[in-house]
Specification:
alpha/beta, 323 residues
Length: 323
Amino acid sequence: MRDTLPLLERVHFPAIRRGRLETLQINVGYRCNQSCLHCHVNAGPNRTEEMTGPVVDLVLGFLRRNRIPTLDITGGAPELNPHFRRIVREARGLNVRVMDRCNLTIIEHPGQEDLAEFLACERVEVVASMPCYLRDNVERQRGKGVFSSSIRGLKRLNALGYGHDPALPLNLVYNPQGPSLPPAQAALESDYKRVLYEQYGVVFNNLYVLANMPIQRFGSALVTKGEFESYVSLLQDAHLDANLDRVMCRNLISVDWRGYVYDCDFNQMLDLPMQQGARTRVHLVDLFDDKVEGNPIRVAGHCYGCTAGQGSSCGGALKEAAE
């Protein structure tokens, strides 16, 4: 695995500062039942990093004390963390909006037979990775058999009300196959909805298009193929200053499995920790009584992945969302 941080730190990105904290994103572990080419976490079945009970207690305490409206749970496959369901139940008990970044195939994973029913019972918003509506494209990026398993997962969620019931939102996530910008979100969403319904009877609410970040597994592959600099230049050339006002890091902090805090999930994977005053590495326990609003956000060349073209965030395109 080639470290792309030294290359990214050479690239200038405009200075930005944090606004009001609205979302707590937690990465509960890097273990996953898949190993996808585009994965910026470098997740896989052999990863052992995992959020423990005491860190989970800190997360729940932080939500309670600071009244954060949204909890965004990611991984790996977050559902594989043994504390996942406790996190969900207690956060929902605080009336927090909970998002589960689900890879869909986890629904058929041994030990997760009742996962879909659990998510529906707790009214969890499902944000599901579905990099294409075509079988060959999905399996080229995520592995053989993943497409069929994903379709079965979507049908099961639909049967429970997801995509139909306003209280059970089901959103899909698209990533490009290679070093290119994602297409226009609205047009691609229309294609997804048409094909998935006509061929499989599947419905969903929104499609989020995300640019691939030149970090971890994807970034390493770009370096190996000699495509790293050209991809970063593509992102830079497509940068729009207007997107700076809506990037996710302005209203989100990312917490890793140990409880350390980052400005976003991508910075977490580059080990670029949040800085707070004199602290160069901040733990969640340090922020219980501190305000992060107005703090500078750590940036590098990968940040152009969020501001290029229509923009990209955990909630999809920035430009189209604003419009």
